[in-house]
Structure formats: structure tokens, C-alpha cells
């Protein structure tokens, strides 16, 4: 699919500064898993992409990053044209070949279909960027691990039960694994492969 | 913000920054693991630590306040040059105060003042691979890390115990990060190793020659290697700092006159200054007071 010029929107007004600030937001959420941030360095996103997804793409993607898009996004002319024009990232047909997967929560590939890295190079793995309908600190998942002093709670809406349990169990294969950004409108959170996920337990009622 | 015209912001080109940024995110996700990165060399004088410079250049933004230390001091030639470099190419504010810095690039020390959340400590690393002197081949050390095969390092440290009766390694003392990866903490004194564990600040490590980046996220366990019968111990001194009286800092021995008189002072100059400002005094102050009294 070629670039459709009528679909093109502006990128960052100040690409150098905005890329740096979005990266720092990404660094914060990846190093403090479950922390929510809002990023507002771009005014609009191509139709089909959340504002946070679009800003992550502008900040992190380039001709050196292979990207796989979930079916609805891959069929979206505005998404394809703007990623091609602004990021020049090659698009791949198989999620296993991707450095970054950008997907709707309802169109996620199986975790097993992604690249988890190798024992000697666990960094050569796919990073997942998932667009979800809601993202908050409501108690749903209880998170622990590096970057979390005690525990942190996170609610990521719209994930299927099998995906949630696959992600929880994937921690047993550390250092192999998938690092995930969750995006919703201008909000963003992340879970690196080190984060242990447990379902929130309501405090036992006193007798 | 005024930056020198004709330069990229913070000197590095945007494509190299993106590559390094992606490597930093991987490093954070796999604590203690060395992420290889590509990108161009930063043509800098020896001693500036190109790895630390590349990480700082990729992380720094207009809102940052940068502190640079070398052996604990802000006023060495290297520290001053690096600070000026980023003030010039990124137009950022610089500071000597640990408390108000958002980014701290360091060689050889961790500040004495406990670091806080949202601060980032960036280490210059000469040799990132802790197993390199045991195994020169990268393909082999990769396998050793993959299999957590760290017995050779335990043997090396135990040879110390057999020879000297204690573990003689006092700098570059190897650590285990998050119970998984053995990591070289860069040539800091082992005195600083305990500060790395459960630190609220993010720690990033850059090795320019070997092009490796690694990281310790905030609140991550970092343990120094030891043995049940020879537990890890940090350096300690019988003296206190002659300037501020601190009995808990890493001390440097300095010669004070032509007769070879010596005194011990904090290696962290900002920490020492902060204590003096708070009214703490050491024996050097007592000496000068008594001299004045004698003169009167
Ligand atoms: Zn002192």
C-alpha cells in the first residue's frame, strides 16, 4: 500500500524535544511498571491510533524497526500512510518478525506467536503496543517486581481471559519474554517482562 | 533555551538517540542484562566516557538539571568539561547539588546523599562484562549469562579469601541483579554497592567502547557476591572527615603540606559542603580554631 497524501497529518511540531519527552515518559512507565502517564506532545493522531500510540511511534520507530499491525490497523489507510511517511518503518506480515507489534486489544496475536528473544539475546524480542478501551489504577491486577516498591494496581480493559493468563504465566520464562505498552487515548502504562501479575484479592472481611 | 547552532540537540543525531533509547528500554525490562547497541561513535576526548555520554545525550531534555561527578567531585577537569558540553549542546541547567539534579552522570562514585524517585544516575562504564577476565570470548560469556553459570566468579573471589584471608576486590565488585544477572557495577568502590539495591532512582550504565547498555530499575534488588563464611563487607575508616566530621562517608586521603601531613576528607564534595552548611565540623576546623587562639 502506498502513502495516501490526503490521509497525512502533521507529526510533532518540535520533533527533537517531543521525541525526547515521549521517550522519558516511556522510560518512566517501563521502569515503574503500572504507573500511568498522560502524554500530550502531539495534537492529533491518525484515525485508528490512540494519541499515546501515535506519539510512541513517532518517538521510537524508524527504518530500523519492523512493525506488525493488527488486521484493522493494517487495513487502515491513514495508519499505514502516516507510519510510512513519518516513521519509515518497514511493515511485516508475521508478528514473529516484528520488533514492535501495534494491535487492538481485540485483535491480539497469541503471545506464543511473538518473538520472546533468545537465551543469549533476550533483548531481541517483540515489544507489544496494545490499544485498550480503558486503563486505570483500579484494583484488578496486583503488580510486583523491579520498579515497584511494594505492589501497584493496574486495570487494563478489554483483554481476553486466555491472553491475561498467558501474560501472567509468561513470567516463568524470564529472561525471555514480551514487554508491553498499554495505550488508551493520551494515557499510557507499561509492563516489562519482569512484572509479576496476580489477580487482586479483596481484603478478607473481618468475622 | 539557547543551544549552539549547527549542533544536534545534545550533540547526538536523532537516529542514534532512537537506537540508544530503544536499547535503554530493553535494559530496564531485563535488569542487569547487557544490551548491545549500534550507532555512531561520539568523537570525544579520552576519559569522558563515551558510553555514559551517549546515554546522557539520549536521555537529557530541556527540563533537566545535570550534575556530573568524577571520583565524587564536581570540579575535576572531566566533570567540568562534560557539564559544559551539555550546557553548550543542550542548553540545560547544571548543578553541583545532588538534591536538585534530575540527571547525574558519574564516574567512580555514587553520591552519599540518598537518591530519590525520578532522578536518573548514569554510570560511565569502561568494561561492562564482569566475566571478561575469566573468559575473553563474548560468545562464551553470553552462554554463561544465559545459563546463570557464575561459578567461575565465585572461584575467583574465593581465591582471594585463600590468599589474603578476605575478599581483596574493593572496586568493580560484582553484583547479582534481581537474582538473575551478574553485573559489573563499574569501577565504584564496593562501599557504594549497597546503595544500588532498592534505590528509588533509576540507574543506567553505558559502555562506549563495547557498545553495551544495562540498567537497574528503581526498587530492584542488587546483591554483592559473597560467601557464608566471608560475608560482603564495605570499606571503613578509623578516621572521620577532617572537614565535616562525617563518620559514614567514603574518605579520600589527601596530603596537606610539603611535610607529607595527611588528612581524610569526604570523596563526595557536595555531600561534605552540605554538611558544613548544616554546621557540622571536622578536626581540620578544630585545628584552625586552635591556631587562631594561639595567635591571639
Ligand atoms: Zn566531609
From TrEMBL, chain A:
<protein>
    <submittedName>
        <fullName>Phosphonate C-P lyase system protein PhnH</fullName>
    </submittedName>
</protein>
<dbReference type="InterPro" id="IPR038058">
    <property type="entry name" value="PhnH-like_sp"/>
</dbReference>
<keyword id="KW-0456">Lyase</keyword>
<dbReference type="InterPro" id="IPR008772">
    <property type="entry name" value="Phosphonate_metab_PhnH"/>
</dbReference>
<dbReference type="GO" id="GO:0019634">
    <property type="term" value="P:organic phosphonate metabolic process"/>
</dbReference>
<dbReference type="Pfam" id="PF05845">
    <property type="entry name" value="PhnH"/>
</dbReference>
<dbReference type="GO" id="GO:0016829">
    <property type="term" value="F:lyase activity"/>
</dbReference>
UniProtKB/TrEMBL annotation, chain B:
<keyword id="KW-0949">S-adenosyl-L-methionine</keyword>
<protein>
    <recommendedName>
        <fullName>Alpha-D-ribose 1-methylphosphonate 5-phosphate C-P lyase</fullName>
        <ecNumber>4.7.1.1</ecNumber>
    </recommendedName>
</protein>
<comment type="function">
    <text>Catalyzes the breakage of the C-P bond in alpha-D-ribose 1-methylphosphonate 5-phosphate (PRPn) forming alpha-D-ribose.</text>
</comment>
<keyword id="KW-0004">4Fe-4S</keyword>
<dbReference type="GO" id="GO:0051539">
    <property type="term" value="F:4 iron, 4 sulfur cluster binding"/>
</dbReference>
<keyword id="KW-0411">Iron-sulfur</keyword>
<dbReference type="InterPro" id="IPR010306">
    <property type="entry name" value="PhnJ"/>
</dbReference>
<keyword id="KW-0479">Metal-binding</keyword>
<dbReference type="GO" id="GO:0046872">
    <property type="term" value="F:metal ion binding"/>
</dbReference>
<keyword id="KW-0408">Iron</keyword>
<dbReference type="GO" id="GO:0019700">
    <property type="term" value="P:organic phosphonate catabolic process"/>
</dbReference>
<dbReference type="GO" id="GO:0098848">
    <property type="term" value="F:alpha-D-ribose 1-methylphosphonate 5-phosphate C-P-lyase activity"/>
</dbReference>
<dbReference type="Pfam" id="PF06007">
    <property type="entry name" value="PhnJ"/>
</dbReference>
<comment type="similarity">
    <text>Belongs to the PhnJ family.</text>
</comment>
<keyword id="KW-0456">Lyase</keyword>
